[in-house]
Amino acid sequence: MQAGRLSFSLCAAVLLACAGLFSSLSASADYPDKPIRVIVPFPPGGATDSLARVLGDFMSRDLGQPIVIDNRSGAGTMIGSEAAVNARPDGYTLLLTISSLVQAPHLLSNPPFDPVEDFTPVAQLVTTPLVLTVLGESGIETPQQLVQKVKSEPGRHVYGSYGAGSSGHLYMHAFTEQTGLDWVHVPYRGEAPSVTDLLGGQITGVIMSGVGALPHVRSGRMNALAVTGPYRMPAMPDVPTFKELGYERMDNRGWFGLFGPKGVPAEVVQRLSDSATKALADPEVVQRIENLSLIIDPLPAAEFAPIVKRDNDIWSAIIKEVGVKLD
């Protein structure tokens, strides 16, 4: 009698497990059958938000469901990222973010998530370099000339970035360590005030976004000395990469990527990745993205995931070396 009850319980458990599996498979096959929320960890109006809305317009038509952009800014992208990581892994809550995903957690003593283990990469979308700039009238045209200038006047120079622990700060730390410069880092609350001070002659150099630097470089008010990443920026083809010039740890380019929480079914990831890739080949989408001075560089999940892990390892090491914490 007892064996019979055990056998019945075992069969019931197996049936429940199978029912759950078939339900999950059915849900994946029908995906999507309701609106998709895309969390953007920045306020409306910036490059990440603009990219999300451009892609959302196309992908909503392609997927047959509305895509709702949910701006969750604050705490250096951590508020939006944490909201995404705690969502159900069903493909209906996604995160469109930048490479700060693998930087911000390392700036906290007790980060609420692991950027590699707790997210499902869906696709890399676009990339963007940072540009080391100086005042146009300074006469400095190469990183080596900048190094010579700063070394000739020790203790008199400062450089700016768009925030402590930002990519700009960390790249410039790597540059400073390799060149042995004696200058001071000034972290600004965003890129705009650092540009104002550079153009006003209050600081010597700024490392900044390509989209922010481009109009000032074209007008001659700034000189672009070098760009981060593995290859030159199409909008500034005459500006060399740091890698070309022999500098190390300056060759990974900032990415914009689409993520889900850990555990999103592979079929759903594939559906989303295919839709995003299709969007990035559409002429209208391409034009709108190029207007943001972003470089279209799509990669599927299988190729994007190793990049996320590599960049996480690189940035965690640099942040530990710098010793910066934001809490």
From TrEMBL:
Keyword line: Signal
Keyword hit for Methyltransferase: no
PANTHER family: BLR1237 PROTEIN (PTHR42928:SF5), TRICARBOXYLATE-BINDING PROTEIN (PTHR42928)
InterPro entries documented for this protein: BUG, Bug_dom1
Family annotation (Pfam families): TctC
Species for this entry: Isoalcanivorax pacificus W11-5
Keyword Signal in annotation: yes
CDD domains per UniProt: PBP2_Bug_TTT
Protein name: Tripartite tricarboxylate transporter substrate binding protein
Leader peptide range in chain numbering: 1-29
Protein family (similarity comment): Belongs to the UPF0065 (bug) family.
